[in-house]
Amino acid sequence: MKLKDIKIGSRLWTAFGTLIVIMVAIFSLAFYTITTLSSNMHNIEVNRMPDLIDFSKMDCERMTIRSQTLEVFMYGNESNATQSGFANVLEKRNKSWKVVDKHWANILNRPRQSEKGRELIAQLKGEYDDWRTIYVDLDGLIKALSQTTDNEEKNQLMAKYDETYHRMVPISDKMGKTFVAALENNLSNTNDMIAKNEKQSVSARVVIIISMLTALLFTIIVSLLITNSITKPLAKGVQFAESLSNGDLTVELDVNQKDEIGVLAYSLKEMTNKLKEVIENIISGADNIADASMQMSATSQQMSQGASEQASSTEEVSSSMEEMTSNILQNADNALQTEKISTVALDGVNKVGKASEQSLTSIKEIAQKITIINDIAFQTNILALNAAVEAARAGEQGKGFAVVAAEVRKLAERSKIAADEIGILSKTSVDVTEGAGKLMTDLAPEIQKTAKLVQEIAAASQEQNNGAEQINSAIQQLNSVTQQNAASAEELASSSEELAGQAEQLKEIVSFFKTGNVSQSGKTDKKSYHHAAIQTKTASAQKAKSQMNQGSPKGARLNMFHETESDNRFEKI
Hints:
Layout: H1 8-77, H2 83-109, H3 115-147, H4 151-245, H5 260-345, H6 354-393, H7 401-436, H8 444-510, H9 523-548, H10 565-572
């Protein structure tokens, strides 16, 4: 497993754990060395040095006792020697024996670590016993000398003392040599122990220094490895974050490891991919919004133009309907005049015979024409209903109203033709009536009927007038709706322009991010095309609005004498 694939916590725990183990080993070695040195020094202090002191004291007291032994000879050779001198020697001897016993007990009670030391102690013990035994005899002689007053006995005691002394000297000298050997052995062991301590101390220092250097080198190497394994990917991460802060989403984070930094790098990569996807979706959405706004603008332009044309056509139809209404009223007036003429001609009806028959024929024809006028009135009512339906539908398309207007124009033409024919026939009836003279008297009932029919024509004309007024009112409402549609189309165009501007602004904001997608190019061309479409649409809308706001309608002249394709299509309905 590579170092970069190990968790940072595990790396740190391993590194510091190893360092702690090394430091514990170093401290353990140092503690062991110090403990060993302390134990050795304690052994020297507790055993070696007191042993040297005891041996030195013992040998010193041996020589002191020996000098005390020689001091007896000094008192024995004096002629005037007194007992107090021997007693004094004996007193000092007792003190010396106390010192000897103390140090000898210490020597015997102290454990021996070397075989040679134990052999020397065993040898010294035998020599000491011999030495103490002979000194018991010497001390007994000194005690006897301190108690005798007889010179002869004194001389005998001194002779015996001298002989015992000479036996003691080699024993004492031998024990002294053994003391020296024990001291030298003790000193040698002490020096060896000190040298061993120094050697152990030097070895411990070397081992500790090497261990410290090893730990230091290990720490440096591990620190460099761990630092590089952390700082290098972090530096890449920082550079990656800086690129992201500059909007560059195409940058790659080249960190391939499985630790916490690797997990963070993977998360950053996923975040960048998601962010790139979101930005691309935003750019695509902004493009779609811009395209939709352009299409909406074009549609609004078409709606505005259609509304303008529809409003203009509505104004023309309204003007034509007013003219048709005027014609219908004129027909009603003509019918009233005809009624008056018929009343005047009633006096001469009886005088006209043949002429009355012709008048009757004419009146029948007039009745047929009146039937046509009635049909026209009926069709006009149906047409008014169709016009209302088409006016309701004009809010969406406004295309079907032209057919209705054409049918209205056709009915108006028929009404005019019928009215003209009625006028001609009425004139013929007047001429025939004048020519017939008195024959008109016989035709009085028919003339009365004619007058009644003329009244019905007038009533029908009035009904046509009412229907035309209703149609005109419906057309005015249709005109109002058309103008509202035009205003709505203009507002829709303005809204689409604002929406397109916001979409472009959103694209400019999002263009800060670089996703590496070529769809970000071509933004200027689309924007220019969009502004051109908006300007064209705005100009068209303003033109339509100016046309709708004109004060006087242009109107239209209705040709009621010629049938059109719309007339034929209406008849099929």
